[in-house]
């Protein structure tokens, strides 16, 4: 490439046209607004949290039990400062977006960060159960070490559990940024608003989608490509989308959902110990201990008592 480029005199005109496209109300433009928490900043917080969640696996791999208190204590200061920063930016931005007076966002950010950090032991307890569920449910796993290091579900679910706690503490933006970082790295999309119980197991994981108002019980197992999604959003009399309602399914305890199954709708409940076969498409509830499998273009429902119902796979529903 030559050192002196031609046509550089055209660039100011192009820049002017680009700036003209930054109109008022442009949803892809964030000028004259409070600074947002950066994706890289949130990612750094996540990396620091991973070192604390999984000591000896990430960061310094030579930590001993005798030195662990010192090492964790050493990491708490930078983590607390960075966490306060991203929460403060999120709160300040929300105040400006809503036109509220931002008078105590710094103090609120610090108190929220402390409350979040106090929840880390409970998050770790849930994650330990998730990892054991992965190990017990996957005969290919040779050890829990292998699961923590290499299974995408561990990164996705651990990030979800952290983000969910921040969401419960009413932190805007940051929880969704966290789960989208994990989504990009693992292919598993879990909204931080979902409610997920203990011993949650995602096998393989790529393409799993779990929507915001999904409720998942204990001992649930999902395979790759499973979608727990919503039907089209209802609208009010003025045509505006109605958002504040349950849109995603409820999955009760000990349900197994195999690869590429799709379950949609806020009124859809998959009963306890049900098994949903691969590629099944559901917009209606399934009783407990029922097996649903795809046979050609038909769905076969086999109950715990042995009775069988067969119906077309594709039902009428609004998309």
Please provide a written account of the structure.
The protein has 319 residues and is of the alpha/beta class. It has two domains: 34-188, serine acetyltransferase, domain 1 (Orthogonal Bundle); 194-235 and 244-319, Hexapeptide repeat proteins (UDP N-Acetylglucosamine Acyltransferase, domain 1, 3 Solenoid), CATH 2.160.10. Helix content is 39%, strand content 13%. It has helices at 11-20, 39-53, 68-98, 105-118, 120-137, 144-150, 152-168, 174-186, and strands at residues 189-190, 195-196, 201-202, 209-210, 215-216, 221-222, 227-229, 250-251, 256-257, 262-264, 269-270, 275-276, 281-282, 291-295, 298-302, 308-312. The strands form three sheets. Strands 3-6-9-12-14-15-16 form a seven-stranded mixed beta sheet. It has a five-stranded parallel beta sheet with strand order 1-4-7-10-13. A four-stranded parallel beta sheet has the order 2-5-8-11, with no helix packed on it. Helix 7 (152-168) packs antiparallel against helix 8. The termini are far apart. 31% of the residues are buried.
What layout of secondary structure does this protein have?
Elements: H1 11-20, H2 39-53, H3 68-98, H4 105-118, H5 120-137, H6 144-150, H7 152-168, H8 174-186, E1 189-190, E2 195-196, E3 201-202, E4 209-210, E5 215-216, E6 221-222, E7 227-229, E8 250-251, E9 256-257, E10 262-264, E11 269-270, E12 275-276, E13 281-282, E14 291-295, E15 298-302, E16 308-312
């Amino acid at each position: 490439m030559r050192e002196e480029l031609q046509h550089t005199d055209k660039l100011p005109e192009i820049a002017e046209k680009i700036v003209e496209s930054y109109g008022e109300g442009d949803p892809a433009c964030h000028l004259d607004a409070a600074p947002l928490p950066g994706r890289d900043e949130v990612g750094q917080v996540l990396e620091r949290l991973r070192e604390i969640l999984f000591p000896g696996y990430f960061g310094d791999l030579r930590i001993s039990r005798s030195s662990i208190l010192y090492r964790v204590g050493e990491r708490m200061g930078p983590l607390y400062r960075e966490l306060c920063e991203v929460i403060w930016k999120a709160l300040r931005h929300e105040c400006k977006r809503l036109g509220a007076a931002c008078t105590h966002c710094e103090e609120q950010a610090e108190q929220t960060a402390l409350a979040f950090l106090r929840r880390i032991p409970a998050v770790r307890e849930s994650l330990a159960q998730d990892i054991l569920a992965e190990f017990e449910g996957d005969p290919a796993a040779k050890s829990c070490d292998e699961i923590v290091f290499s299974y995408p579900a561990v990164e996705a679910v651990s990030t979800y559990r952290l983000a969910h706690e921040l969401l419960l503490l009413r932190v805007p933006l940051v929880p969704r940024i966290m789960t989208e970082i994990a989504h990009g790295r693992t292919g598993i999309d879990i909204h931080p608003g979902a409610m997920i119980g203990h011993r949650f197991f995602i096998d393989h994981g790529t393409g799993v989608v779990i929507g915001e108002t999904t409720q998942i019980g204990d001992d649930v197992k999902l395979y790759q490509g499973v979608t727990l999604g919503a039907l089209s959003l209802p609208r009010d009399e003025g045509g505006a989308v109605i958002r504040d309602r349950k849109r995603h399914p409820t999955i009760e305890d000990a349900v197994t959902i195999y690869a590429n199954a799709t379950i949609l709708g806020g009124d859809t409940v998959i009963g306890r110990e049900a098994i949903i076969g691969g590629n099944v498409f559901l917009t209606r509830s399934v009783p407990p201990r029922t097996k649903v499998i795809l046979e050609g273009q038909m769905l076969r429902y086999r109950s715990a008592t042995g009775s069988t119902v067969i119906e077309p796979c594709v039902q009428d529903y609004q998309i």
